[in-house]
C-alpha cells in the first residue's frame, strides 16, 4: 500500500480550454493540488502561428476557472521567441497573467520557456528556420529580461532558468529533477530514474496494460554521465551549485576537477563563484546552454 505524505504535491498538466468546473471538482477529489496550464501566449495571432487550438479568451477563462475552484497551486506555462511575437506582445501577455495573479493568490507559479523547434516540427511548415517572423537574437534577449523583470517585481522568485514562483510554491516535482534525484514512473510512456538506471514505460497503452512493470527503454547511467548531468541541472538553478554539497555527494573536488572551465567562465563574467556557490551570472542566463556546454 502506498501512503502519501500529508503535504505531497500532485500535479496535473492540462490545456486551458479543457478545463471545466466538473473536471476541477473531480481532480480535487482525486487529490490533485497543483494544476499546470499550457497557455503559451495570450495573443491570438501568436497562438494561431503556433497551431494551438485555444484562444486568448479560452485561456483566460480556463485560468479563472482553475483559480476560482480553490486549487491550491496554479501554474501558467508561457513561451517566448515565438513567430510573430514581439517584446511588447510578450509584455502584454505577462501583464495579463500578473493581473490575474493579483486577483487569485493561488496563481503562484509561472514557467516560461524559450522556443526550441525540433527539426521535424510542423511549425517549420508554416515558418521555416530562416523566417523573419522569428525574433532576432537581441529581441529574444530583451524578451527574457522583460519576463524576469516583470515577474520578479510582482514577487515571483526566479528559481530556475525557466521557472518563477511565489515564496514556498516552487515545483517540488521539478526541483527533484534539477537536484538529480531519483523518481518513479506511473502510466504510459512515463520515465523513471532509480539506482543509477533511467528507463521508461511502454508507449503503447495496450502493451502497458499487459505489462505495467515492463520497460520500453533502459539506460545505465555511469558515474561520469551522472556527474555531467549534475552540473547541467545544478547550473540551471539560479542558486547554482553548492560546491561543498556537490563534493560530498559526488565524491569529487569540483573546483579542482573543472578548474579550467570555471576560471575561463568566471574571468569573462559568465559564471559567478560567491559564498561557496557557483552560478550563471544573471545577464548571461539567456545563453545558459552554451555556458553549461563548456563543461562537456
Mean model confidence by pLDDT: 93
Based on secondary structure, the structural category is alpha/beta
Shape: globular
- Strand element count: 12
Model regions low in confidence, pLDDT < 50 over at least 5 residues: none
Describe this structure in words.
The N and C termini lie far apart (42 Å). It contains 13 helices and twelve strands. It has 296 residues and is an alpha/beta fold. Strands 1-2-3-4-6-5 form a six-stranded mixed beta sheet, with helices on one face. α1 (21-29) links the parallel β1 and β2 (34-40).
Secondary structure: elements and pairs:
Elements: E1 11-14, H1 21-29, E2 34-40, H2 44-50, H3 56-68, E3 73-80, H4 87-103, E4 107-114, H5 123-126, H6 137-153, E5 157-160, E6 163-165, H7 172-178, E7 191-194, E8 197-200, H8 205-210, E9 217-220, H9 223-236, E10 241-242, H10 243-250, H11 254-257, H12 259-267, E11 271-274, E12 277-280, H13 288-293
Parallel strand pairs: 1-2, 2-3, 3-4
Antiparallel strand pairs: 4-6, 5-6, 7-8, 8-9, 10-12, 11-12
Helix pairs in contact: 4-6
Amino acid at each position: 500500500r502506498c501512503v502519501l505524505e500529508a503535504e505531497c504535491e500532485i500535479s496535473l498538466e492540462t490545456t486551458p480550454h479543457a478545463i471545466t468546473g466538473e473536471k476541477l471538482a473531480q481532480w480535487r477529489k482525486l487529490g490533485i493540488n497543483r494544476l499546470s496550464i499550457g497557455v503559451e501566449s495570450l495573443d491570438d495571432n501568436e497562438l494561431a502561428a503556433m497551431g494551438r487550438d485555444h484562444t486568448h479568451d479560452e485561456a483566460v477563462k480556463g485560468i479563472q476557472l482553475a483559480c476560482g475552484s480553490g486549487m491550491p497551486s496554479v501554474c501558467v506555462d508561457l513561451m517566448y521567441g515565438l513567430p510573430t511575437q514581439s517584446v511588447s506582445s510578450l509584455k502584454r501577455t505577462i501583464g495579463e497573467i500578473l493581473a490575474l495573479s493579483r486577483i487569485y493568490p493561488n496563481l503562484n507559479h509561472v514557467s516560461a520557456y524559450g522556443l526550441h523547434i525540433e527539426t521535424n516540427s510542423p511549425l517549420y511548415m508554416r515558418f521555416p528556420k530562416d523566417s523573419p517572423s522569428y525574433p532576432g537574437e537581441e529581441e529574444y534577449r530583451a524578451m527574457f529580461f522583460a519576463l524576469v523583470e516583470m515577474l520578479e517585481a510582482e514577487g515571483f522568485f526566479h528559481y530556475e532558468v525557466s521557472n518563477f514562483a511565489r515564496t514556498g510554491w516552487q515545483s517540488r516535482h521539478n526541483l527533484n529533477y534539477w537536484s538529480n534525484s531519483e523518481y518513479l514512473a506511473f502510466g504510459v510512456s512515463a520515465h523513471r530514474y532509480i539506482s543509477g538506471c533511467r528507463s521508461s514505460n511502454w508507449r503503447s497503452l495496450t502493451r502497458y496494460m499487459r505489462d505495467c512493470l515492463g520497460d520500453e527503454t533502459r539506460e545505465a547511467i555511469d558515474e561520469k554521465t551522472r556527474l555531467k548531468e549534475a552540473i547541467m541541472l545544478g547550473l540551471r538553478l539560479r542558486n547554482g551549485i553548492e560546491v561543498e554539497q556537490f563534493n560530498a555527494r559526488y565524491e569529487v573536488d569540483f573546483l579542482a576537477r573543472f578548474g579550467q572551465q570555471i576560471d575561463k567562465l568566471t574571468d569573462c563574467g559568465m559564471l559567478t563563484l560567491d559564498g561557496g556557490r557557483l552560478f550563471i551570472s544573471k545577464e548571461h542566463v539567456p545563453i545558459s546552454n552554451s555556458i553549461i556546454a563548456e563543461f562537456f
